[in-house]
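RECORD TYPE: inverse folding
INPUT: structure tokens
STRUCTURE:
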């Protein structure tokens, strides 16, 4: 399956909602390179975030290009049309060169029975006991099982193909990176399901370089993984093994790799991820979930005066508008309102205490994951401040940049790829 644009073994989505931290994030990636690991930066911003903040995909492209020029970044970088669908892909085509194809709405839709029959016939060789390197037990695939999985996922993969061909017609084959996202479903895919999905991706002739399956546990925004670590580790290793097998069997791109969505701040799974990557010699793409915006708030708080005032105002308004702000993220946050600090108490906090409550440091006695999650979804408040907030980011750039770089390198890149 032909391709020309290469993502690299390791890549990291550097979400930057307000478009001011490109240089600080590249500084973290430069530190990783100095430590001997190349990680490709991928600026990512969804249609929802653009709508809330009032930006366009072209704004992300301009930020990325400017940061790259300022930092003399000489290796590849990308701008991701994050979670795009056929109805909005056109809006992203000119500015982006990485496309995350979101087909969640088509998972479980009834596929054309004739299409299912033809697919099952073409991939009848999957029926039986499959021995896949890296998975101790053989995978047993029945004819009925193959048909059932095709019935569940084939319509989604066909829709991914339609989106891919729409992009290909405008940008040309080999001029963009494709990710197929299958993570927004109720249950994690089994190894057999992922294998059939990848067979369908190959059948649809999508040269996917990343695939995002569903994992067990909760990947809540801005906080650590919630779930059984052993179960996650097993699923992750099995997925790596299935991808390697599918590349050989179906002719998918040799650099196809896993993508983990909302992967920032999931500190407890970083060690098993790194161990598995080393064992399989595999690559990884990680999408972030607004962690940089929270570092901006921390930097503003530490700057004191007007910066701290803005940080407190964002919290006060976010608390007052909690239901509104949380509604779009209801499935990926868990906030106990009783554990949110009273605004009258927060009013007396200094910048250091505000930062400690917000910073994701599980060993800090003041860290409050409920406070952090609310502020995570509260970026709409900052967007409504308009020039006042953006001017504060520029005024306190040095303090904020230090927080952004430290967070990205010390808490993410180093434990995932370096240590």
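DESIGNED SEQUENCE:
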């Amino acid at each position: 399956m032909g391709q020309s644009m290469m993502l690299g073994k390791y890549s990291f989505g550097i979400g930057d909602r307000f478009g001011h931290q490109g240089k600080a994030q590249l500084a973290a990636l430069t530190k990783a390179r100095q430590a001997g690991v190349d990680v490709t930066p991928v600026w990512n911003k969804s249609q929802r975030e653009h709508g809330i903040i009032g930006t366009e995909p072209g704004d992300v492209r301009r930020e990325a290009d400017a940061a790259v020029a300022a930092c003399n970044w000489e290796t590849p970088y990308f701008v991701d049309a994050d979670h795009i669908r056929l109805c909005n892909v056109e809006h992203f085509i000119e500015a982006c060169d990485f496309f995350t194809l979101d087909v969640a709405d088509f998972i479980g839709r009834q596929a054309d029975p004739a299409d299912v029959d033809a697919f099952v016939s073409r991939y009848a060789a999957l029926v039986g006991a499959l021995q896949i390197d890296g998975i101790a037990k053989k995978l047993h695939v029945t004819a009925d099982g193959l048909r059932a999985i095709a019935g569940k996922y084939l319509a989604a993969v066909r829709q991914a193909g339609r989106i891919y061909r729409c992009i290909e017609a405008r940008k040309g084959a080999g001029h963009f990176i494709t990710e197929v996202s299958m993570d927004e479903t109720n249950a994690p895919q089994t190894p057999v399901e992922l294998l059939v999905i990848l067979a369908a991706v190959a059948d649809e002739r999508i040269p996917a370089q990343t695939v995002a399956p569903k994992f067990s546990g909760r990947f809540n925004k801005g906080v650590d993984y919630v779930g059984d670590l052993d179960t996650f580790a097993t699923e992750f290793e099995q997925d790596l093994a299935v991808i390697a097998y599918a590349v050989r069997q179906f002719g998918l791109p040799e650099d196809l790799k896993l993508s983990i969505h909302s992967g920032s701040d999931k500190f407890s799974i970083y060690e098993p991820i790194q161990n598995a990557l080393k064992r399989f010699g595999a690559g990884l793409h990680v999408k972030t979930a607004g962690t940089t915006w929270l570092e901006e708030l921390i930097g503003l708080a530490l700057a004191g005066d007007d910066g701290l005032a803005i940080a407190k105002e964002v919290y006060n308004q976010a608390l007052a508008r909690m239901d509104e702000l949380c509604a779009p993220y209801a499935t990926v946050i868990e906030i106990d309102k009783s554990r949110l600090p009273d605004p009258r108490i927060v009013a007396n906090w200094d910048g250091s205490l505000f930062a400690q409550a917000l910073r994701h440091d599980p060993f800090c006695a003041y860290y409050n994951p409920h406070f952090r999650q609310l502020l995570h979804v509260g970026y709409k408040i900052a967007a409504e401040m308009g020039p006042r907030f953006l001017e504060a980011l520029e005024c306190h750039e040095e303090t904020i940049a230090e927080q952004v770089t430290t967070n990205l390198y010390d808490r993410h890149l180093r434990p995932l790829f370096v240590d």
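NOTES: Residues 298 and 355 are 5 Å apart (CA to CA).
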